[in-house]
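Hmm, how's this folded?
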Amino acid sequence: MSDGPFLVVGLGNPGPGYAGNRHNVGAMVLAELAARAGVRLSPGKGPRARSQSGEGRLAGRRVVLAVPSSYMNESGGPVRGLLDYHHLPATDLVVVHDELDLDFDVVRLKRGGGEGGHNGLRSISRSTGTRDYLRVRVGIGRPPGRQDPADYVLKDFSATERKTLELLVAEAADATELLLERGLEAAQNTVHPRS
């Protein structure tokens, strides 16, 4: 495990119209992490211009917490800018994102792998030139019936889901902290059996 700092990025779309969407759960988790760390996210300049970010400590580690200000499918540019600005390798990148292939309220951790059709991950992999970054996958479940996944992720969480959304966001934030504190394998051993 690196000494960091780690770049922890929560994915979502900008603006109030998207704030409650399933696709924005990564940004929700990032907001929770920023609150826990007492980090204020503010617009950057230069290479950091397309994100809201702040620096602090989380789980005993130095971190840069960030939410791209771009749309989801353009997340890679802001992430690359932040990695370059802070002189960080992509292996010290943690991306928190929504995951269709996990049931709602399940959190999983991994490094690398495919993007599963997730445009934010695809953009980041393309911009960084690697898929070998850490991921906190926050389950949102599959769309019901024949609903298009692209429409599903841009809808707000259902009334039933909203009752436990706060708990899911907290669990994903806990998992992120464990990942930073203990490393991937130890964090997986704690997080995965519980979900």
About this structure: The chain has a mean pLDDT of 94. The helical segments are 25-37, 76-85, 119-128, 149-153, 159-182, 184-194.
